Amino acid sequence: MPYSRTDMAAKAAADIPEGWVVNLGIGMPTLIANEVPLEREVIFQSENGVLGMGPAPEQGKETPWLINAGKQFVTLRKGGSFCHHADSFSMIRGGHIDLCVLGGFEVAENGDLANWATSENDTAPAVGGAMDLGAGAKRLWVVMDHTTKDGRPKIVEKCGYPLTALSNVSRVYTNLAVLDVVPELGFVVRDIADGVSLEELQAKSAAKLHTRA
Amino acid sequence: MINKIVNSLAEALSGVKDGSTVLIGGFGSAGQPDELIEALIEQGAKDLVCVANNAGTGHVGLARLMELGRVRKIICSFPRSANSVVFEQLYREGKIELEIVPQGTLAERMRAAGAGIPAFYTATSHGTLLARGKEEREFEGRHYVMERALHADVALVEAWKADRWGNLVYNQSGRNFNPVMATAAELTIVQTQHIVELGDLDPEAIATPGIYVNRVVQVDRGAPWAP
């Protein structure tokens, strides 16, 4: 059974220790926040200048003045603060963010990430903060499906799509497995979904998968 | 007496010239100076270079300005938001130039402009398409890309509260690009819902000191539209 989106988010969330400052990318990564209990104090940053985001607001209590980078309504938890965009990206570029989790089109075995444009001739690609986060966060994890909808591997030897960040991805959570990206070695299987064999996982990947001996 | 408060949106936008580079604050609808953008549409300046995080949505505001053929070029990080129909059509037809800038680099280029720094090096975008043609340097074994300051003629800013010196306080995530843009333009124009007496803003809470602000106009806008 492949992992559901919630499973993937929960797996990533379980690996985030108390005290980390974490930026979650738009889309699937955003779900991770729901899986971190409030008692475990993880500080969520949003690049539009929100540090210390809390859970989604109750219905009817949303304020349009308080949104995240995905432009969804959010709340601020006790201890939270606001800053302007240049300060927010100083936190990111300056290495003050412990972890960033982004979505991905492709991750390569050297840790390269492609997630912003689908070709060199993409008419108007939208990069947002992905390159800043990819280069600046202390750790970069990716949450994505293991293959494209039509079955092409997204775990690859070398990215075919234009790069977002070079050699920075250290872990990938897919619907089939959790993979570490180890320098000089490549993908190492950390966890695998129930009922998925290593052979099947390898067949759905376009890079060599290693197992911990 | 220093008094930067003007009485109308028309007065706030007066003198904006054709060919201006215009910074537009806001992220999503929060902190977006909608009334000033409408007033710029009325004012008539054309051949503009607009700088904003997004490239407008629907057929209002920045999208409307583009639809009217008044924007020569847009500099932004994320042109493809939901419903950015006007931009996409103009871009397909080759009627608008696009410069994509990573979001943090965009903010820092304006911060640099306001801080008197002509250029800076950042690791962001190294090895990607967005670094093409840019000078690169290595510092302590890491690669960096040189980015230039982004100066503007005009900044359109939304603030929660303002006083007659142009001191500004923002509301939650409505702050976003506004304080950075306020520093980077020759003419910084602010719309605010609340004009207060000089001395009423907590000096510890002023995010934009009035030194960066030229004009303030009061608007009744309520909350921003839902994102």
Automatic annotation (TrEMBL), chain A:
SUPFAM superfamilies: NagB/RpiA/CoA transferase-like (SSF100950)
Keywords noted in UniProt: Transferase
Top-level taxon in the UniProt lineage: Bacteria
Listed InterPro entries: 3-oxoacid_CoA-transf_B (IPR012791), CoA_trans_fam_I (IPR004165), CoA_transf_AS (IPR004164), NagB/RpiA_transferase-like (IPR037171)
Pfam families (UniProt xref): CoA_trans
Cross-referenced SMART domains: CoA_trans (SM00882)
Listed PANTHER family: KETOACID-COENZYME A TRANSFERASE, SUCCINYL-COA:3-KETOACID COENZYME A TRANSFERASE SUBUNIT B-RELATED
Family from the record: Belongs to the 3-oxoacid CoA-transferase subunit B family.
The protein's name: 3-oxoacid CoA-transferase subunit B
Organism: Roseococcus pinisoli
UniProtKB/TrEMBL annotation, chain B:
Keywords: Transferase
Keyword Transferase included in the entry's annotation: yes
InterPro entries: 3-oxoacid_CoA-transf_A (IPR012792), CoA_trans_fam_I (IPR004165), CoA_transf_BS (IPR004163), NagB/RpiA_transferase-like (IPR037171)
Domain of life: Bacteria
Recorded family membership: Belongs to the 3-oxoacid CoA-transferase subunit A family.
Protein name: 3-oxoacid CoA-transferase subunit A
Organism in which the protein naturally occurs: Roseococcus pinisoli
The organism's taxonomic lineage, starting at the top: Bacteria, Pseudomonadati, Pseudomonadota, Alphaproteobacteria, Acetobacterales
